[in-house]
Design brief:
The protein has 166 residues and is mostly helical. It is 64% helix and 7% strand.
Length: 166
């Protein structure tokens, strides 16, 4: 599998994992979504919002039309609106990866960080970070779901692979 195909696969996994995460969250009372939690972003809703914010920041950079907003921006207070935005963002990421070429994957990207200055980095590292960042915060989300009385998320990449190949 070449680099471009790998990132398309990661975009497909991202959709699968986010669907499972949002399905689990949808079963909770609204009060649990906003309840204070011990995590980097202090609630389920704040964590979910951060993931949309981060993806919009990275996609803006990757597409050459950067946006700027604080990492803790709350874009959506309503869960259903946030879910709709997440689904649209996931589809945009998938479409972006479907159009990637190996030459683009191996090229550099210069960007302005929200918090730490200007950088030039390989796109494959940036794309890897974008998907890894989602996984990082979904891990925190899994713990918050347990605290809220739900079961843990079972969204390991290998489970996606098993479903994909079944």
């Amino acid at each position: 599998m070449n680099g471009a195909a790998y990132f398309e696969r990661m975009a497909q996994y991202n959709i699968w994992a986010n669907t499972h995460a949002y399905d689990a969250c949808a079963k909770l009372p609204v009060a649990e979504l906003d309840a204070p939690r011990r995590a980097f972003f202090p609630s389920i809703m704040r964590t979910l919002n951060h993931l949309v914010v981060a993806d919009r920041l990275w996609m803006g950079r990757l597409l050459g039309s950067p946006v700027t907003m604080p990492l803790d921006t709350v874009l959506y207070e309503d869960f259903d609106e946030l879910r709709t935005a997440r689904e649209a963002e996931d589809q945009a990421i998938l479409e972006f990866t479907r159009n990637l070429t190996d030459a683009e994957v191996t090229s550099d990207l210069s960007y302005q960080s929200v918090t730490a200055g200007a950088y030039t980095m390989p796109r494959d590292l940036i794309l890897g970070h974008m998907f890894n960042h989602q996984t990082h915060h979904r891990g925190q989300l899994s713990n918050m779901l347990i605290e809220a009385g739900s079961g843990p998320l079972e969204i390991d990449l290998i489970y996606f692979g098993r479903e994909l190949l079944a």
